[in-house]
Specification:
This protein has 466 residues and is mostly helical. It is built from 19 helices and 6 strands. The longest helix has 36 residues.
């Protein structure tokens, strides 16, 4: 295929250099956006009298026929083309002749590429947002079934205080809700029109950038042409947001790996989301959770790739910037697949409530409540803390729990202990008493779940209407 930029040079690129220079292997996925942007550009050129209405109609008809043929499979994208922009323009000229050569008037591949990418990332951001909402819904549904399922809460991976499984799941749901907020903000900055910035300095043609901005559904336009073609902040921001989403997914994946182990046995994963061993017949491995945890590193790497690629670039466009797409596309594909799988895993996993309750009964996770009991009797907290610490030491020595100590044993440490201490330190009561906003009591958790439901119900068209 001849090069559309042939002129100053004869385009006699070495074959290896030509392949090295080509981006169509990954930017071919932008064919729809490229055609959409070109249709808007042609309509604007006609409206401004730069090309005729008949030429614009012919261009649009030709472009739409290319789109239809690519989508139906009747037209294969030529992987020997330099990029998707060159392929579409070359195919258009083949189909409609001289009018096709006028499409690139008042436009450069620099603003064309930036426009295509912004259109694509806007759409992909909406899809990621919708997948996040789906995961939040899966979490709230599972949480709603386990309002009273008591489990140990941990700090330093040591049993700390009693809480409910619902409360634990809600914590992740709120993380993902914040991720939704970040995506909303990112989308506003993605949704800016660079078309009309041309190569770097704008154009001498009397174009109407507001017209293409409206036609393509952008919220605004680039106010500086140098910035318009060289800005990839929106890519970095989206990859940053995706990295945070993946960090959250990795954290819950780690918990799933732990919870599904024999050492915990808090949950059992569906066979649809776990695998066996090639040599050990007893194994049921949480491979999907492990893969999500592992793929998080890819998204971090892609973010660093973009930051490093951009850090030393002078204005305006440089070929280094071609490296943006593979990193962005890979992170998008990764996070979408991980969100979908996590939603399915959460929905299908079996919760072993008895094992959770049994684990909560060990580890003295009601020790804080025992100290609070003494405080309620008038003892200073620090003194109460030391007293209960001595009680725990006694329990460890005698292989007892706080619940199994006799009242006489309690009184060896403080005369303030009475029969009502057993009710005070009962795990179910420990959980119910924690009823401050955001706490683990069933009443508080129900309120949190209602917030999630309100959030989900408010999302009819995830971001586009915000």
């Amino acid at each position: 295929m001849s090069k559309l930029w042939q002129g100053r040079t004869q385009a006699n690129l070495n074959k290896k250099a030509d392949a090295f220079n080509s981006s169509i292997s990954f930017d071919s996925r932008l064919f729809k956006e490229d055609i959409e942007g070109s249709c808007a550009h042609a309509a604007m050129l006609a409206a401004k009298g730069i090309i005729t209405r008949a030429e614009a109609d012919e261009i649009e008809k030709g472009l739409m026929s290319i789109l239809e043929d690519i989508q139906s499979g009747a037209l294969e994208i030529d992987m020997s083309a330099e990029d998707i922009h060159m392929f579409v323009e070359s195919e258009l000229t083949k189909r409609i002749g001289e009018a096709g050569k006028k499409l690139h008037t008042a436009r450069s591949r620099n603003d064309q590429t930036a426009t295509d990418l912004r259109l694509n990332l806007r759409s992909e951001t909406d899809k990621i947002y919708a997948s996040l909402v789906g995961l939040i819904d899966a979490l709230q549904k599972k949480a709603s079934s386990h309002i009273n399922t008591i489990m140990p809460g941990y700090t330093h991976l040591q049993r700390a205080q009693p809480l409910t499984f619902a409360h634990h799941l809600c914590a992740y749901a709120f993380m993902f809700m914040r991720d939704c907020d970040r995506l909303k903000e990112a989308r506003h900055r993605i949704n800016i029109n660079p078309l009309g910035c041309a190569a770097l300095a704008g154009t001498t043609y009397d174009i109407d950038r507001e017209m293409t901005t409206s036609a393509l559904g952008f919220e605004g336009l680039s106010q500086n042409s140098l910035d318009g073609v060289s800005d990839r902040d929106f890519c970095v921001e989206l990859l940053s947001d995706i990295s945070i989403i993946m960090m959250h997914l990795s954290r819950i994946s780690e918990e799933i790996v732990l919870w599904s182990s024999w050492e915990f046995k808090f949950i059992e994963l569906s066979e649809g989301y776990s695998t066996g061993s090639s040599i050990m017949p007893q194994k049921k491995n949480p491979d999907m959770a492990e893969l999500i945890r592992g793929k998080t590193g890819r998204t971090y790497g892609n973010l660093i790739t973009l930051l490093t690629m951009l850090k030393g670039l002078p204005l305006a466009y440089n070929k280094d910037m071609q490296e943006d797409k593979q990193a962005v596309f890979d992170s998008i594909d990764t996070v979408k697949s991980c969100l979908e799988l996590m939603s399915l895993m959460i929905g299908d996993m079996k919760v072993n409530a008895e094992n959770m309750r049994s684990a909560a009964a060990k580890g003295f996770i009601n020790a804080t409540d025992c100290a609070d009991y003494l405080v309620s009797k008038g003892l200073a907290f620090r003194t109460a803390y030391k007293t209960v610490g001595s009680l725990v030491s006694r329990c460890i020595e005698t292989e007892k729990t706080l619940e199994s100590l006799t009242l006489s044993e309690y009184k060896e440490f403080s005369d303030l202990f009475a029969e009502d201490v057993y009710k005070f330190i009962k795990l179910e009561n420990c959980v119910k008493k924690r009823n401050s906003k955001g706490a683990t009591s069933p009443q508080s958790v129900l309120s949190q779940i209602e917030m999630m439901k309100d959030f989900i119900n408010s999302v009819s068209n995830p971001i586009a209407t915000t």
